[in-house]
Task: structure prediction
Amino acid sequence: MNKANQVLYQVLIADDEPIIREGIRDAVDWAALGMEVAAEAEDGEEALELALSRVIDIALVDMNMPFMDGIALMKRLREERPDCRFVIITGHDEFAYAQEAIRLGVKDYILKPVNAEHLVSVLRSVREELDERHIQSNYLKKASEQIEKNIPLLRERFCQEWIDGQLEESEAVEQLEFLGLPPKLPVQAGIARWPELTVPQPLMKESDRQLYLFAIENMIGELLQPAAHVLFRDRTGHIGMLLWDEIPAKTCADAEQAVQKYLKLSIQMHVEPVRDDSGGISAAYEACREAVLRDAQLSPLVRRARQLIQEQYADPELTLESLAAALQVSPVYLSRTLKKELGTSFVVFITQTRIRKAIQLLNGTDLSILEIAERTGYDSQHYFSTAFKKVMGVSPNGYRKGLAFQEEKGG
Result:
């Protein structure tokens, strides 16, 4: 170890005989060994108290001390100061006892009367061991600091590999904890697409694009709070998201509106549930990618209409006419435009939205069928059950019983 960086190791001498303590203290050039005598004790209890009140690197311990013998002292210090190194001071008649202590992990022993050369030799050996530990500790600290600095980069690489299907779920879960993320499968995946990132001839300088992209990420991150999530940039330029808490559908619309309002930029954001299987992450992410590309083709009117439906589906009074009035267009024009761009009618779209939410409630809550009907915009349980069966091929009760049977069979 470089002398300029050398650690001055702290030594405790614990022996009930003053002459032994004095002899040890005077027999060694402590500074030459990179050590100093920090404390002396005449019994085990005092030695323990002194060792716990400061950082002691090396304890020279008499085997036979009053109040607390050497073995008891070392056992206590082993628990409280695991990095402390022990050297036993022992008489000939305690030699077998000392050997037992050595088997317990004590560094070495010194026979009384203390031989200075042997003592220095043992201390030099202890110092070398402590130097190696100190160097190792410094390397590990630097490595830890480097990892901390690179965690965002490691997360990005990890997320990219996961959405590409290159990681098994068990392998991914192990890495999640290391990366400071919840060690389980996310419940949703998402994408935010800024068209400027994928155009052949960008309209702004690269430095400006990166600045705006960072601002978009920050805005999305704020809106996703307090849901556990990670944002990353995939290799196609999209902002990717993995979420461990479900976010409301309107969060995507809120993010799009916030970016439009404050940054004057247009983005498309979409999230999808993650299936509980090995390909769930890749499938959900691909579905998001397709959805934002489809969304990019939609007119502002249809995007706004879809957002209002997703926000107000629980209102039984939501109709094509009321939606058209809110958007300040005629019902006929709105109906024709929805059909053209979404490939479906207003009635089918709102029904699909309501049934999709009903399925989430059936899966994740103990709400009654009537309560679920009321929360998804249906005036009566009968009307809800009829609509649900038409879409799903089974009644809400039948769907829930099927879930229970699957869980029972799986358990």
